[in-house]
Each structure stands twice: as structure tokens, then as C-alpha cells.
């Protein structure tokens, strides 16, 4: 199995030790459903088959005593397993871990055989060689792993790993028929146990690769140069018999320091309305609030508007009739608008919609020769409706402005008639601010998906204070060698 697959599987196949509720705070939950587990199991299985069929099998040497002829030395070499076919395979999450079994496994071995003998009676040494095919019947494989969360990562332990073969049939081409029986007798058991050991070794190695892959998963998923998503695993995986649930911290943290603390109540399990989806990722409202608080504190929510589609609005002449005093004091001067958020925006997720409120101060600056003179400040409360969608492996958002409330905070240019100014501000927001915000949040942030896996046919469910992404996944072999989250 490749590390990738292993990784996924690992993720899937947790042995959960009897659930110890340590109660660490988690704001993103990930549920891998039976369909998701089957998908990962198939990936692991294909990987294991490919590794097994490329694994060298040691040569077999023996000598047997044949009546009349004497000692015959027999050598089987160039042994290859091919056409490995798993009849039935299952992945079963249970209280003592995750079991993956393959039964009705059939495979073929081909090899070269060679024999030679010489004795004092026959002074000439005689030898012959040919090819041979061995069919393996009734092979079964079983892997059982335990998963628990330790120090923020998922630890995989292999509790059981074995391979059992019922019987083999050997066909020889060429050579002497008297030898057939001798070969069967001499090698049957040895071939069976060598193939069993080789396969067990490959499975064990792949599980151990998967385990170290899981331990190498980053604890922070970079979003941009300001923030990262804390993807530290908390609490032990939860196995239900048909699914595995993982909890991760899920909060946005600043590149340098972490300043916020959030509390959440006991969350309901991840719920997808379409039970056939492979994976469910539930994001608590706090994830979004932590993001907004972080970007607010990083002073990124600050804009100077010096260009508008309607540039006349950035000259006092454009405001002559709306704010006569402004034009009288600073005739025909250019202006800039200095917009800054006055509080972190809020987000409220309910089953019907995602509401957001943005609090901002808009300072009107007049550019008088080389001076920037603030002349008035208007407080804004912008209510918007958000929508989210999955783009690639990112959760992206879109904001639509719903309502705008304005009030005058201070003014050096007399009283402003808000009912005249409000439509202008609305227009500025619709044409400049909202598209700017949407350009940023439209990229979204990466969901915690392991590299190589892609969400497909994702569906989004909003419920009280959480957003759940339910999706199928596909896997791209090309990403196989690295073990990083996609972004
Ligand atoms: C932190 O920010 C720096 C640049 O300021 C960037 O190079 C680095 O990748 C960021 N780290 C994370 C984890 O986002
Ligand atoms: C990430 O979350 C874990 C678990 O809540 C916490 O222990 C850790 O300090 C967090 N990391 C950062 C950088 O905030
Ligand atoms: C915009 O306003 C902020 C604070 O409200 C201030 O720090 C900044 O200097 C202003 N920028 C301009 C160009 O007026
Ligand atoms: C305005 O700035 C320009 C260059 O920045 C300078 O040459 C000019 O003297 C300044 N004018 C005043 C009135 O300060």
C-alpha cells in the first residue's frame, strides 16, 4: 500500500480504544462513512496488490531422493506472484479497531524450475529446466488496526496482520514427468509458507508506512500568510460499526500567536442527508468567527478607496448638492474614502441561512493640495447573507448585501442628510466593497483533506450553528508520494 493510501486508510481505520471523553474543544468534525471506508479500502487493496506483485520471492532449493536415480537437486527461481484477485473484501470498524479482510483471494505464481543429478553409477551429470505455474486457492488476508489520538496526531497500531493459504496446484511445463511428484512433495509447504510470509510482510510494511504518514500530518494547514487552520486531532476517533469520526481543533490561528479562545457545547454527530456520501465534514460557527477575528486583528480589514466606477464621487463637486457645506469649504478638491472595520464581523449560521453583520467606519478625506483632511465619519452596519460552496477542496463563500444602516459619527462640514448619502454609500459598497470581499472569500480556505484526494459532488448542509460538507472523494495516484493536505 502506498503511504497515501495508507494514510487515508489510516485515517479511516482507527482502532478506537474505549472512548475516553477527554472533552477537548473541537470545532471541525470529520465523518468517514461506510462508503468512504470502502473507497479507502479499495485504494489500499489496489496498492497492496501492486506491491505484492512487485515483491521478489526468494528462490527455493531442495534435494530429494528418487529411488534408483538417487539424489536430485531441484531449484525454483525467478518466482513472481501475478494476477492477484481478491474475491470479497470488507472493511469493518468495530469497538476494538478497524478490520480489513480479503477472502476468496486467488493468484498465480510463475517461476523457472531446474533440476540436476549425478551419481557414481551415472558418471554424466544430467540436468533439465522449464517453466512452471502455481495456482493459489482459498487465500485469506486479515488486517486489524487500532487508532487513537496522541499528542494531536492519530496513532495507528497494527493489532493483527496475517495471510492464510488453503492449497496450491502446481503445473510444470517441459522436463520429465517423473519429477512432478518430487517437486510437489518437496516444495508445496515451503511455497505456501513463503507466499504467506511475503504477503504478511508487505501488509505490515504498508501499515507501518501508513502509520508514520499519519504521524507526519501537519498540525497547521496554511491558509495564507496571515492565518493557518489548526488541524490538530483532538479526542479519540469514534467508531460506530459503519463509520469513523474524527475531531480536529478547526480554529483559525494567526501565523505567530494564538489569542482567542472559544467554547463549544457538545456537538451532535456529523449528519449527511444523503447516506451514500463517503465523507462528512462539520464546521462549527466558531471556525468562521475565529477566522474573522483573526483577520480583523491582523489589521487586514482596512481599505482606502481612491478609484470608483463613478469617479465624480471622489471630488467635492460630485457632492455639491448632497453635502453643500463640503463643496463650499473645499471646492473641486479630490477626496478619498477611508473604510475600516470597527469590530470583527459576526457570523450566524442557522438552518435557513448564514447571516453576517459587518461594522465599519467610513472616513471622508478631502485632499487639499498635499494635505489629507478628514472631514466626516459615518458609522455603517452592513447586514449580508452569505452562501458557501465547495471549489476544489476549498470551502468558498459569497456575500450578498442585504441592508445598510448609516449614522453620522462626527463631522466638520455640518450635518449630513443620511437619507441622501445612504444610496450613494450603498452603490459604492455594491460596486467596490462587496466584489472585493467576494474576490477574497471566493477563494475560500482549504478543508482538511489529505493530498491526492479530491472532493466530488459535494453537498452543503447548513444547520443550527454549523455547516456540514457531505461529499464523495476521488483519488489521484499522481499525488502518491507526498503526504500533505491539499490547499
Ligand atoms: C507565515 O507567514 C509567512 C510570511 O509572513 C509565510 O512565509 C509562512 O508560510 C506563514 N506560515 C504559515 C504556517 O502560514
Ligand atoms: C491547536 O489546537 C490544539 C488542540 O486544541 C491546541 O493544543 C494547540 O495549542 C493549537 N495550536 C495553535 C497553534 O493554536
Ligand atoms: C484611515 O483611517 C485609519 C484609522 O481610522 C488611519 O489609521 C489611517 O491613517 C487612515 N488612512 C488615510 C490614508 O487617511
Ligand atoms: C506637495 O508635494 C510635492 C511633492 O510631493 C511638493 O513638490 C510640493 O511642494 C508640495 N506642496 C505643498 C504646498 O506642500
From TrEMBL:
Residues 273-471 form the Lipid-binding serum glycoprotein C-terminal domain. GO terms for cellular component: extracellular space. Coiled coil: none annotated. The keyword Signal applies. Residues 32-257 form the Lipid-binding serum glycoprotein N-terminal domain. Gene3D superfamilies: Bactericidal permeability-increasing protein, domain 1, Bactericidal permeability-increasing protein, domain 2. SUPFAM superfamilies: Bactericidal permeability-increasing protein, BPI (SSF55394). It comes from the Eukaryota. It holds the Pfam family LBP_BPI_CETP. Residues 1-23 form the signal peptide. GO terms for molecular function: lipid binding. This is Lipid-binding serum glycoprotein C-terminal domain-containing protein.
